[in-house]
Amino acid sequence: xAGCNDSFMDKYPETSITENxxxxxxxxxxxxTNGFYGYVSPSLWxxxxxxxxxxxxxxxxSLMRGEITPKNAGKWSWTxxxxxxxxxxxxxxxxxxxxxINHYIGLARLFxxxxxxxxxxxYSNVPWYSTDLKTTDTELLYKTQDSxxxxxxxxxxxxxxxxxxxxxxxxTRLYKEAALAYQARIxxxxxxxxxxxxxxxxxxxxxxxxxxxxxxxTIMASKKFxxxxxxxxCFQSLDLSSNPEMIFxxxxxxxxxxxxxxxxxxDWEHTLSRDLMEDYLYIQNNKAIxxxxxxxxxxxDVDHFYLNRDPRLKATFWTPGYKRVxxxxxxxxxxxxxxxxxxKFEPQSSDQLxxxxxxxxxxxIRYAEVLLMDAEAKAELGTLTQTDVDNxxxxxxxxxxxxxxxxxxxxxxxxxxxxxHYPNVKSSQxxxxxxxxxxxxxxxxCEGFRENDLMRWGCAKLLETAPEGIYIDKLGYQDLxxxxxxxxxxxxxxxxxxxxxxxxxxxxxxxxxxxAGNTFALTNGTSGYLRLLSQVGKFTFTEPKYYYYPLDExxxxxxxxxxxxxxxx
Length: 569
Hints:
- By secondary structure, the chain is mainly α.
- Helices cover 36% and strands 8% of the residues.
- It has helices at 6-9, 26-34, 59-64, 79-88, 98-123, 138-141, 148-165, 176-196, 205-222, 274-279, 367-381, 386-391, 393-400, 407-412, 416-421, 430-443, 450-456, 494-498, 502-508, 553-558, and strands spanning 52-54, 246-250, 270-272, 282-284, 287-289, 362-366, 471-472, 476-478, 488-491, 511-514, 520-522, 528-532.
- It has a 3-stranded antiparallel beta sheet with strand order 7-12-11, with no helix packed on it.
- A hairpin with a 5-residue loop joins strand 11 (520-522) and strand 12 (528-532).
- The relative contact order is 0.13.
């Protein structure tokens, strides 16, 4: 060692990545940002929300039962944001094509915006950090939260940079158009949260609606995307690379053993709810009307609920006669799950129906969402026109084979069910807001949006009600698979079950459900909608407290400058 000079000792390993030799080229930035893609992923269901009956536990249920407190909330983590900041703090020494460098800086800032806004959605006020912290940065490490306004404005600055500097493209990597879509998502979310959450005291919602609409219009004007001819194919394809609707998707691969668990969506621990089913429009005389305005809608059994409906219902819900690819006979629901099995995302080859063995590609951002966001932002601004409706909602309806929407009809014929669902809407275009929300719920069902939509709209009280599922008109034999023969028997007691003739059990292969002592029941005792007893009268959504999550007391002990969320003190 004594014989080595300083320049020799300053050499770095050539076969490993070190901070001193990395981040020197756009290729290094590309390699580093590849690690960020695990921070975003597709969603295959709407658990938990009023779109589903969910038989398992989740944090929202614990929250509404009063079980989550600052003592057990769980410590927050900043690892992912620090990983992004680590790169951004070191791009000053990157040399090469400036446009390439700026693209990857924009990509990193896009990821930071996505990750940071998730924290805003959870806690509202959080500390803003634009660089990776070291143990010596005690003042920053132990500072209090910054205001929601400051953090969101910083997020919007990141998104502005990303949308201005990222390259154009689409596919399994993020490009300018995906950045614009994320900008619209975040701006729309923030605009509606500020509009429908007066406790924030922020009165600039329109600024964010304008940002959202502009981002959507930029994507639409590019003419680079259109709706795929088949709605169902967006969720069941082995290859989405040629699908014109995909702005950003995840590629799964059988050969590389990159798989997911879409097959379990059918009937594992959740099913689809009556409330979601009722939002799909009824088509009568070439006009789409609310299903709840159809005579007898509230007593429609499995043989009738799907008739003359928006075709997206049959692409999303199990209906009688549906066969899974592994089934010889039509499948039937597991009544203990109460609702309708979900077939959206159902793989179409038998080798994919085992646990965690599915390899269909999955969408993360679809062009249909952009159209919906544009319509919603303009309806919230009160500026939506029939031309806007034609360019957005009616494009979606045309693909779905649903009659066109009329803005004047929306404004003059307000659906009472939607008005009851969203009572805090006071806009001059509230009828349009209601119907755009309906269209969003139907088009994006099972894609992971519903819970957050209710939160941002200030309508999470809807989550208090125990979700209901399939309607059963009476106890006894039921034909659920549509083959004309009974396949299920629902009875009141064990004695009733024992009284079923053995010959019938053998002949029909009856699956017998006994209500007494079971986990589910019918809303009217011997008839009505199936629902889980464990959820009836058990949920309370305290407003505005439960729109925010508490800081864990352990985090506040580590950093005594942190302030507990106002509604959790």
